[in-house]
UniProtKB/TrEMBL annotation:
PROSITE patterns, per the entry: SAM_DOMAIN
Coiled-coil boundaries: none
PANTHER family documented for this protein: SI:CH211-196P9.1-RELATED, SI:DKEY-286J15.1
SMART domains named in the record: SAM
Region Disordered, annotated ranges: 491-524
Protein name in UniProt: Ankyrin repeat and SAM domain-containing protein 6
Length: 643
């Protein structure tokens, strides 16, 4: 007697406990399909079990699809609709209706081999483990399940009609992953069409939002040393040494610099570190939740700087690149005026004649003045040899130069003569421009609400100003027109030339406590003014001012009364040297301006922005693109176009 199909049906319905009763009653494969409801009630006492067996028998009799087989897996297949189902492998399977003919299922069950030969894998869906049973944890993935119904139009294409609400379902990777058939042979009326739509893998989403701009795998595998580490050391479980990590950091930093430059963002560096240890856990610490990516790059606001292998390599590469990058000395002419030319400094440098220099140092008179006129460029060569950097005099060499070039300071008007010979087109630049600039500066100060009488202690009425008064007041108001530069200076007075004068005396410096560092403060407007000009009574001895002077840069000394703007004489004080300039302020201002160029003296720190306005704005001297502060550029833009 044959009980193979009876056994198969009961096992697939998980009703094997009734198999002995079927054999006792001699219910073979042939008599199984002849059972009725009353016959089963005597063998199977449970109503639900009887209904399952009757459903299987009816399906075998009718020759239609084995609905009981699909229901065992909680997947309902209706011959009138088509639907899609998402499995755990990221594939979407579409079942659709394509005919009205009868099914090819016969009245008997087929074994797995025969079903495979016919292209049917329905037996793979009939497993003992139900879909709603909890599988092993490592095989669980949550993916959305959406049912989409299709209807066939006149052209034979399937058009989506309705959509179900999204749901979340636990699906085992092995369920329906092997469904690869798209039709059933034999002229059946019901054809199952299966469409596989590949979705992106879950692991790929971890590296989807890459902001560092390259593929870590390709970059690392392109280097032979790192490739050997990945393919040899990691599979063998060997130690990843510090030298190995440095080699990896070097390859990654080169790629970062190529994509993001030498100053990448912290977010990009952190993402590189995280992705590196996620792809290669051996490069981090597998015990930690985030694989220990902090060893490659870590930044916190509580630390002075970032740390890690990537950061160390980045700092090293940045230093090397900065050393190799040449400094671009691009000069920008502020005013497009063909009449101005500062190119005379680019002439040849004649060799200094020491005999003439010694003769001029030992003698005075007309002959010395003539020799001074013929040795201008020799003096320029000598001065350039004592510069610490191009265009800046080494202040420590100034006493030696003053001794060699004594006639330049002792003889009247020699500074101006040297400048005029070296820059003939600029000889009268201040006499031409400053009268116009001074009037505009006074107007600018008045509209800015600056009370020059209160700031400078002037009691003279504005309408009583002479031209010389306007030139002097405009020059003195520059510290109040331009905002403070924020330069931090030592509070101890470095000038020493105004301690005994009440009119120019500023607030006393704070006392320095014992055992503490010297305090620092920002230069006040009065400090800035005193670096430009100092007012002294007309009976003041110039020798006393020179003795008390500790300022390294030149400034103007005005002897007289600033209250009514009456002055008897002006001097340009340069360290321990006093250059007389007569009774006119404009001559002293012109001499001080030209002294900076003739001797390449660096601009004073306290009044740096003010002298930049005078030299580069009024004088039109070329400068570096990023040399001028914004406040200086704005004042030049407001004043100079109106000149």
């Amino acid at each position: 007697m044959e009980f193979s199909e009876v056994t198969r049906v009961l096992e697939e319905l998980e009703l094997s406990r009734y198999l002995d009763k079927f054999k006792e009653n001699q219910i073979t494969d042939r008599s199984f399909v002849l059972l009725s409801r009353d016959d089963l009630s005597e063998i199977v006492p449970v109503l639900g079990h009887r209904l399952q067996i009757l459903s299987a028998i009816e399906a075998l009799k009718s020759g239609k699809e084995n609905n009981f087989m699909i229901q065992a897996k909680e997947i309902i297949l209706d011959s009138d609709i088509s639907f899609t189902q998402a499995n755990s492998a990221g594939r979407r399977i579409k079942f659709s209706k394509s005919g009205d003919e009868n099914s090819i299922f016969s009245a008997s069950l087929l074994d797995a081999k025969e079903m495979g030969e016919r292209g049917l894998l329905c037996a793979e869906l009939l497993r003992k483990k139900r879909l709603n049973e909890t599988p092993k944890r490592q095989n669980i993935r949550k993916v959305p399940k959406s049912l989409q119904f299709y209807s066939e139009n006149d052209d034979g294409h399937f058009v989506p009609s309705t959509f179900s609400a999204p749901d979340v379902q636990n699906i085992n990777e092995n369920v329906v992953s092997n469904v690869n058939c798209d039709s059933q042979p034999g002229g059946s009326s019901q054809l199952i069409h299966i469409q596989l739509i590949q979705a992106p893998a879950v692991e790929g989403n971890l590296f989807s939002n890459v902001i560092y701009g390259f593929n870590i795998d390709k970059v690392l595998m392109a280097d032979e040393t790192v490739r050997n580490i990945i393919l040899s050391k990691i599979p063998a479980g060997e130690f990843i040494l510090r030298a190995d990590r440095q080699a990896i950091a070097g390859i990654l930093i080169n790629a970062i610099i190529r994509c993001l430059g030498t100053c990448p963002g912290k977010a990009a560096m952190e993402q590189v570190a995280k992705h590196l240890v996620l792809k290669y856990p051996s490069f981090g610490d597998v015990r930690r939740q985030e694989r220990g990516w902090e060893m490659w790059f870590f930044h916190t606001p509580f630390a002075p700087a970032a740390t890690g292998f990537l950061e160390e390599r980045l700092k090293s590469q940045r230093k090397k690149i900065n050393k190799k990058t040449p400094t671009k000395n691009l000069q920008v002419v502020l005013f497009n005026e063909n009449s101005l030319s500062w190119n005379s400094d680019d002439d040849d440098e004649p060799e200094p004649d020491e005999r003439k220099f010694e003769y001029m140092r030992q003698n005075k008179g007309v002959e010395v003045i003539n020799i001074m006129k013929n040795t201008v460029f020799q003096r320029r060569t000598l001065i350039r040899r004592h510069t610490s950097q191009p265009g800046t005099l080494d202040i420590s060499a100034l006493p030696k130069l003053c001794e060699i070039l004594r006639p330049l300071f002792d003889t009247d008007n020699m500074i101006v003569q040297d400048f005029n010979i070296r820059h003939p087109t600029l000889s009268l630049i201040m006499y031409d421009r400053w009268p116009k600039v001074a009037k505009l500066l006074l107007e600018y100060a008045e509209k800015s609400g600056i009370n020059y009488g209160k700031k400078l202690g002037i009691s003279k009425n504005r309408y009583d100003f002479t031209n010389d008064d306007t030139y002097l007041v405009a020059y003195s108001l520059l510290p109040f027109i331009l905002p403070s530069t924020g330069r931090r200076l030592k509070c101890d007075s470095q000038d020493g030339h105004d301690s005994d004068d009440e009119e120019a005396e500023g607030p006393p410096p704070p006392k320095r406590s014992r055992g503490k560092r010297q305090s620092k403060g920002k230069a006040s407007d009065l400090d800035t003014l005193q670096s430009l000009i100092i007012f002294k009574p007309k009976l003041t001895h110039v020798a006393k001012v020179i003795k008390e002077n500790t300022t390294m840069s030149p400034f103007i000394l005005a002897l007289g009364s600033p209250s009514n703007l009456e002055f008897v004489s002006f001097f340009v004080i340069f360290q321990k040297i006093a250059i007389p300039c007569g009774e006119k302020f404009l001559k002293a201002f012109d001499t001080c301006f030209k002294l900076f160029t003739v001797l390449y003296v660096p601009l004073p720190l306290k009044s740096l922005d003010l002298w930049m306005f005078i030299v580069h704005g009024v004088g039109g001297k070329p400068c570096l693109r990023d040399e001028l502060p914004p406040v200086v550029q704005s004042l030049i833009g407001q004043i100079m176009p109106r000149v």
